[in-house]
Amino acid sequence: MREQYVTVAGEGVHETEVNRSRFICTLAPAATEEEAQAFVARVRAGHADATHNCWAYVIGADAGVQRASDDGEPGGTAGAPMLQMLLRREVRYAAAVVTRYFGGVKLGAGGLIRAYGGAVGAALDALGTVTRRRMRLVTVTVDHQRAGRVENELRTGGREVREVRYGAEVTIELALPESGLDAFRAWLADTTAGTARLQPGGEVYGTA
Length: 208
Description:
This protein has five helices and ten strands, in the order βββαββαβαβαββαβ. By secondary structure, the chain is an alpha+beta fold. Strands 1, 7, 8, 9 and 10 form a five-stranded antiparallel β-sheet that branches. A five-stranded antiparallel β-sheet has the order 2-3-6-4-5, with helices on both faces. α2 (about 80-90) crosses α3.
């Protein structure tokens, strides 16, 4: 697994103008290729009157799935620079659609490449990104008497609590940086007087 990757903070829209042409970049996170395709179709439908709706997406922390479309612009002048901008910024699990409303001035191949790639870059800057790091899933099992304090300290300490289940005991699932596992184990033993149990699990990506 890669140590980390970047993705978009959430769906959003940012518009730029180049020689009277409007370039509207819509960004969204996409967990799967199907999600990315559905997002592209939705944006295209919303801008059915546009001159072009070019798109690109990258799925997988290792960028295993990469797709792009020029949607009628000269080959390699729209989708490719959009995709390259996502890859250069190490953006993963994300899709971008740049909608162009032609303003009457032809930009030429170089101008189109700069405009489409730049629209994605400007949207990433304006809308923001988040870094997802490789984490270790751990399960903490603790008695009801101590569970409230443990959960509260985890959350106030910025830990990524993923699930809390109540039964005969309380089970808390969270994600930790691998490097912090030993320190967390010591903290848990101290906080619960050694009564809590900790079970490491698989690896996921989370916010450190």
